[in-house]
Amino acid sequence: MEWVAIAERLGAGAQGEVYAGTLEDGRRVAVKRLAREPGREEIQRLHFEAALLARTGHSGILQPVGLAWTEGEVVLLTELAEGADLARLAAALRPPPAVVMALGAAIAEILDEAVRAPGPDGRPLGLVHRDLHAGNVVVGADGRPRVLDLGVGHTSLSRGRRTASGQQLGQLDTLAPEALLDADAAPPRDVFALAAMLLQLLRGTPIYGGRTARQVATLAASEARFDELIGEAMAGVPGAEVLRASLAHDPRARPTAAELAEVLARASLAGGGSAQGWARQALDLLPPLAPGPWSNRRLTLEPAGFDRDTDVVDAGDLGAVGEADPTVRDRRGQDTARIARRLPTRGEQQATLEGGWQTWAMVGAFAVAAVGALGCGVLTGLAMLSAGLG
Ligand SMILES: Nc1ncnc2c1ncn2[C@@H]1O[C@H](COP(=O)(O)OP(=O)(O)O)[C@@H](O)[C@H]1O
Ligand SMILES: [Mg+2]
Question: Which of 39, 142, 146, 327 lies deepest, with the highest CB count within 10 Å?
């Protein structure tokens, strides 16, 4: 892979932009370029992503082709998925419910295989994608979904935090409550994300509506209020019991990816669902991709190897052990993880509410006193004035 001819820009995400390219030997690849000038951590993370993709070895997860230096940057090359991402496709043509179920079943199967993929010691890696949303799923003309972007993935081998400070961690629209509250990274988090994504496809709007990250984090602090929020989002969605269960506030109450796959496959069969017809129509409707700053260039590649055994473990040591995931930014750029960390735990909730009541009572009393004092002052002033004038 000595050079790559860069063609159209396939898309952009939180980490960077991705281009379609052709290697010297004719292989078509996707080239991921980081948005920011990479520091040690970013480079290590790309190694981690490449190693993680390789470890899954799954046809539903885009496999790495290599890591390379070019133009002073490190790029990750992966297989190119023909088709388009689900966010673009759904915007072009809303998928009918049976198609949503079929896509969901296939993605749940991919999640299940990923979580069981073996680590270097032969034991399951326990891979959690942590950023599953429609922009990270590519669907081809055959209707088959493929999952990409393990940039903020997490495994049971990851000992420390996995994201650099200030970096976006997951899209708010599919973020599970535990991710907002204590940055938990266990497999049920992906089940929640998948269900939230499917519900968004069915309804056309995200589960959290237009709420800010701060508002969602506040709601997530109370199981009852969160359930109410999800209940509202589910209203009028047909046959969605399994999605409701997958959106449970308590991660332990959710079905596993394997269970979800089974139920969704049955639902899609009952609806005669296959995603192929829809995918073809939607692809035909898409406008052509726009070029990006790197398009129409030939870039020389300097291989920067990665190791699917060591890189998948070493990168887990990024940052301090036991530190919570740092930031989740919503569309307005609010830092929710910090907000979430300030939220009271369930036990503290009552105390805070009482404290809040007392504080407001004090503020109220103070305000009355201040207005009173001001009023007296004004009256005294007026009296003095009139006395003086008189
Ligand atoms: N291998 C690929 N094949 C086709 N499209 C891709 C591929 N990789 C990425 N894309 C497109 O590029 C976008 C951004 O890629 P992604 O890996 O998610 O980057 P980020 O980590 O910045 O979110 C995706 O939403 C998708 O549209
Ligand atoms: Mg992405």
Answer: 146
